[in-house]
## 1
Amino acid sequence: MPGIARKVLICAAVDGLIIQPLSSKGQRPFQPVGIRYGDNAVTVTPRDQVPDLADDDRPSFEAFGIIGLITVSRLSYLISITRRQQVAQIFGSPIYVVTEVAVTPCSSRTEAEESIRRTNRHLGKVNAPNSSSDNGESSDDEVEPRTSIADEVEDAIIDDDEAKAPSPRSSVAEDVIQRRGSYGMFARSWFSRGGWTQVQKRSLGMSNSPTLPPTPAKDATSSADQEPPSKESPHAPGEVSDLLPKLLQAVRVLFGSSRSFYFSYDFDITRNLERRAAAPMTEAPLYSQVDELFFWNRHLLQPFLSAGQDSVALPVMQGFVGQTTFTVDSNPPQVDSMRDSVELSNLPASGSQATTPGIKKSGERRPSEKDYTITVISRRSTKRAGLRYLRRGINQDGFVANMVETEQLLSPVERDDSSQVHSFLQIRGSIPLFFTQSPYAFKPVPMLQYSEATNRQACKKHFERLTRSYGAVQIVNLVEKHGVESTIGTRYENTVDYLNRLSSEENEPKTQETQRLRTPLAFEWFDFHEACRGMKFENVSLLLSRLRDKLETFGSAKWEDGKLVKKQGGIVRTNCMDCLDRTNVCQSSFAWHMLEVQLKDDGFDMSAQVDQETTWFNTLWADNGDAVSTQYASTAAMKGDYTRTKKRDYRGALNDLGLSLARFYSGMVNDYFSQTAIDFLLGNVNERVFDEFEADMMTKDPAVSITKLREQAIELCQKRVIADEKEEFLGGWALLSPNVSGTIKSLPMEEVVLLLTDSALYLCRFDWNMDKVSSFERANLANVTGIKLGTYITSTICPPHSDPSRNVGFVVTYQPGKHDVKRTNTRTFSSLADLAPTTAKGSQNEEGAKSRPLSFVGLFSNGLKAVTPERKLAFKAPYIDSSTAASGSPVPSEMQQITTICAEIERLVQESRLYKSGEEKKGMIERGDIISLEEAKKNTGLLEQLGHSIKKLVWA
């Protein structure tokens, strides 16, 4: 495959880094590429302008490929693969897993040179004959379980003795590297990798598979590589994010020691066999041919791709690749088990066994035997990617969380052009509905979100995409039919029934494509917990018996004589709540059945292999389950002992309890920052996301586009709230407002909808989860007495909250009149009263009196002239969302948005008033602080500051 170098040489230059692509023999087939970094952008220097690398005094190191570039706080870092391990070979092409990366700063030559020297020294140590295998690959002698991003970040930050504090941000080093929450320290020790010894693992049937190599020891390389800029950096210290050290450690762990990213130099592992046959590999660069759904570093490589530097564009995929070989016999010995055991017991003790009819000697190979290779490839989708409780369900484009395509390849070891290669595909993914679950409970109740119409629309997109990609879809739903999971399971079933009815009623022209999309969705609800109660996981055979015919009807793809001779007719989509433990048990059962079908097609009957052990298959699928589980839930898969041994006992149950506790801790504490880092590395958000995280130690779930969700809310509020058809709707905005009406500060601030017509403005409080208006307040424009615009700071617990340029808003003051009302949606005949003042006669305006019930105070107010004070409506601009800013579309700043709204309100207020001839219209906008920084500091309570500090110690 042209355009991809096997190795690259990285060295420091005056203005950045120079990357020299190398051949597999260390030659230099391409000209070097230079990287220069400005304040706001990454510039890749043309090859002919890069100086030669003949100077041996320059510090340099060789890497196996480039993952990409990250830029945050105007500082850029190069991510390169420094260690790898071959885990499989497909069609003659080696497949590697990334085992270690170097993160090299590019802010100044001094930092880059020092980092490169450390990397070079470290590689010299690990590549020594007594410490590692040849060619820089990891040793297979030791095996440790896969580790989560969060656990590795904790260990790397604390245990790395050579990690240095950033010079311009000593407070960052103290806060992020040294100071940790006591609970976090306890949990990190309790759930350390050493918590389960190799002896315990073996007793549970857990293997030392070569596909799960050891996590490399912590060293000076990566932690030193990830230092924030020194004092020589031209960037101001205040611009460096406090979370930058933790982000760089997360990058190192995610792409390196997590061992979850795979690549090949000349084989596309992102496409299954059928898709590769439909679009054969060409001479085009590999990155341009891979499936973008599984291209995890596409955003990080964008600076190189935009500059046309194909030689360093190496796609990586997250998931799992495992491979093993086994032997089958087309004419296996059929010996009575009783006689077999007797004859074996009578064999000579000397070891010189006499030939026994029907019994194969040790090491003897029968002519009817054949060796096969089985490969399991799991591809994790980049869409709605993330961690367990933070990414659930579906998004508006029809992509679901934890979407994984798993392919099982079967091929003979001695393969030629006429050999048959079988490919069986399965998929897993979260229930395609909008729902959330709290991470603060062991078994949280699923909370459905948004309207039924919104859910149906997204679910329809999801299954249309699956049908276009895979054909007919068989749904396997493993959630409980009773208990906390039953609600979402029932909604799922009802939604599928609706989609099937809708498909049959549509009257579109009958084409092959429309007929394929209208194929009814088959829904099988198998209550796994009920069927397998008492650890009887073998009852999964009940599910297999129901789906056996469907599986065999779908079949598998077949490659023969260098071409695709058969396609898979459909796909089985399996889900439980997490799509991990129950799902993996069932998927391995389906895969084993299809393996038997494929081998039977080749003339081998697995049921006749009386001496055949299936440990190799169980181990391979258990490793696959552990990998997918670690990437989504930060721990290995539960029920893994059954997947490996097909047995279940109390030791497996105790192991699952430990995994549950580990998941509980990660979901509460570690996953929030890890999710933020994943969203940033995939390009779903820009670096503003770290300000958002620092503000509340949480991460937002863009299941529905913020922009689109706000547009839908504005449209719904317009329909529900504006009763007078004569009113002309002029605009609507989503803003923040105190949760108590009529006040300027009342925490928490909630997102509301402001509607503006030619005669009034409306403050609508909206239930964003249920898509309904909770209440609204109407203010007649003729009664507006003033508009104040300026700084609006409600908290000072973190820098984003204290920035006067971003914390802005306005306050509208008005005198309530007879047309100013407030309504609350209680779905009853009652409603809050109008806001019109009481007259001297003790009665309201005629219209308001009808809707206002007589109050206790009103009994004593007759004859008194009530004075109604002015009311205030306070609005604050929401921060520019990091996902919206990352989309590339122009987004007005917070001040620009507020200024535009105030100018429009002022214009309409002036037009609603009568002015005498020649009278000049007076401006209504007063500029000044609504809540200044000094005032906000005084009003920020000690308890609020303490609570945020504790969260920062634990979460960040």
## 2
Amino acid sequence: MNKWYQLSASQVAKKLRVDINHGLSSKEIDDRKKYYGENALQMEQQSAKFILFLKQFQDFMVLILLAATLIAGMLGEYIDAIAIMLIVLLNGCIGFFQEFKAEKSLEKLKSLAAPVAHVLRDGIWVKIPSQDVVVGDIVKISRGDRIPADMRIIQSNTLETEESPLTGESLPVVKTTEKIVQAGLEAQDQSNMGFKGTMVTRGHGVGIVVHVGMHTEMGHIASLMVKTKRLITPLEQRLAELGKILILVALSLTILVVVIGINQGHPVYQMFLAGVSLAVAVIPEGLPAIVTVALSLGVQRMIRKKAIIRQLSAVETLGTASVICSDKTGTMTENKMTVKKLYINNQFLSVSGDGYDLTGHFYLHKKKLAHDVPNLKRMLHYGMVCNHASLNLKGHSTIIEGDPTDAALLVVARKLGLSESDRHQFKLIKEIPFDSERKRMSVVVEDDNGMRFLIVKGAPDVLLPRFTYYLTESGRQVLTSVEKQKIEHAVNDMADQALRTLAIGFKPLQKNDHLNNFQLEKDLTFIGLYGMIDPPRKEVKEAILACKQAGIKTVMITGDHVKTARAIAKQLHLLPEDGLVLEGYELNRLSFAELKEIIDDVYVFARVTPEHKLKIVKAFQEKGHVVAMTGDGVNDAPAIKASNIGISMGISGTDVTKEASSLILMDDNFATIKKAIEEGRNIYDNIRKFVRYLLSSNVGEILVMLFALMMAMPLPLIPVQILWVNLVTDGLPALALGLDQPEDNVMERSPRNPRESIFARGLGYKILSRGFLIGIVTLLAFIIVFQQNNAFLEHARTVAFATLVMAQLIHVFDCRSDSSVFSRNPFENRYLIIAVLSSIFLLLLVIYWAPLQPIFQTTYLFFHDWLLIIGLSMIPTIIFGFSKK
């Protein structure tokens, strides 16, 4: 392995054949991928398809069916044996297909949720999935990013990384750019290297990728990447517990039926198969598969709505959310900051143009100004220099990389005619980066004449105490208290107009000035104020109203000025007349108990720190709320992790927030949260629907057999018929219910209690009552036909079989709503219509196709039979279809 840390930046670039200022060309990428390999750790080897198929037959009840098949064959009942075998095989094929599709969906989700890397390709900085990084790529990293591959650092601005995944050392490591002469150093001592999987905790820098995938230090430590394990949701745990209970019931019923049947003189073999069939009827074999499919399809629908679910547990939790704590910038707003006003020379200038449009003009009292306004060029020039954003033109589009506030400063400078060459007139000597505690950024630069000075930009309330002078048209003046008040008034005026304010200033330096001195950012000279706005997204107001109707409170949390936050909140109708607005300093004064007392009345938190966000989340949770928390920065991760539903931004979010979250917004849009909650509620509703359908159908099958045995009558259904009903009549419509559209009132109901039983809100009663009637009408159909002619038992069984199937297929439409069967359009769910029609076709096939009649012991039915079947089948829905109970 090359000792990259022992080479200079230029030597590394030469060895890897890359231009540091231009990056790789797009033509080279495929060749480098083939030569150096993919930038991915090896996945855990998945089971072979054949093994996956065999796993479908390890279920306890399937093994019982296979045993029954063996016994049937040994007793010479070959038709029964073949029929059962075919049904088991068909059920296994369906399970295999569902599990195979689920694995593919999981792989797709992983690729969609993969972190991105900023690379220089063809001279332009672009975002690509980290797995597409190749050896030789020039990569830009900054605070909160996870390093995508092993790289040699070639630029470092107070860059520090946290390498505990690699070395176990929790303290950040300071990164340098100079080559290290000493040989044989371990990874933790290679201070000019960045390693795959480690986190940038401070500053920013640039590196050249030297190793990817399994050739990285992380690849050497782990030869296999641990496969992400799917989390079991509380719902699935409850269903698993239900399954255990049903198995006990099934075994008890099997023994009961066998004993009763033998005592009544039925053959032992027949009663054994009947008992097994009843046991199968008790257990909805398709339930776990349908739950998985419903969750998987719901996740796919969320992807189409720009929401990626990283943890399936979040799907269920989404339906219980009662509070959304949302960031303002980029989530509720466009995240395209635009400078609309400037305060300079004690007067306001207006700026035209919206978004990242580079055309615009400057106005004073509606009068268009020339570009030679005193101090204007200096102010906008300094704003470009003290800046991390980059601006590239691609056709007619402006591509921005970096913070939206920095981007706004670049755009307004371009409107004055300044260019990238103006930006690079100064040599960067030192940078003191922005962070949430300092609320400012400073750079020390040197001009062509060797003159040094400090440029600083940041929050006006933080910088104003540090200003000693201010710049006027006639030069630098001492900043008096009167002038300070004028600046404060200007800040307030802009904030009242929902403008975010940013102050900018400078300080002349001597070459021998100590740059680490704490006095460096004092005695500054004020130049002016930027007033910029990030307009609200048009769709957010409607989304907030929909959440309110759903019993979900929306709370804005922002680091912006309180007046800006209040103005935006009012525009979005988020803040009611009696709603409270709290600032960070007020949160500091409040104890946790005091915050809990008033938290339900607060709708806006302004000027907050990450620590405040964590306190807010915990206060809501203590009040019994299920909290969804959004964030994009690395410091949002604690609050996101502490929340019930952590939501990160797919575009602006850092890798660490994405990893801490359970939901990623691909478009950084608040309206997408509302869509995700609606989808989460609908998924849970659909699970209740098919649980209701499957269990009520199974109750009907059990009762018709049990009541017939207790009345000493012949069995109305044979085992093969019961198995067929379970597979076809139950399976297809139940799966279609999992695809049902949301009801109209899904976002008008209060959030569901997360501890609520699956059988809550009358579902248990619905299952038992509907199942009882389905069993009764099926038995009634059998008795009516059997008593007419005892010689034709096969005819009576065929009528009972058809009645059971039709009663269940009519009942499935009743399961679509908790209210009347007629409250929803029956043709709304086309999948359900197709499933029902398919089940009817298969029923007719079993009854009228001669080759299947001996297998299922069916016979032809006549018109008067169908009148009886349809009439009896409709009774359960007619009796209960108009009732909510």
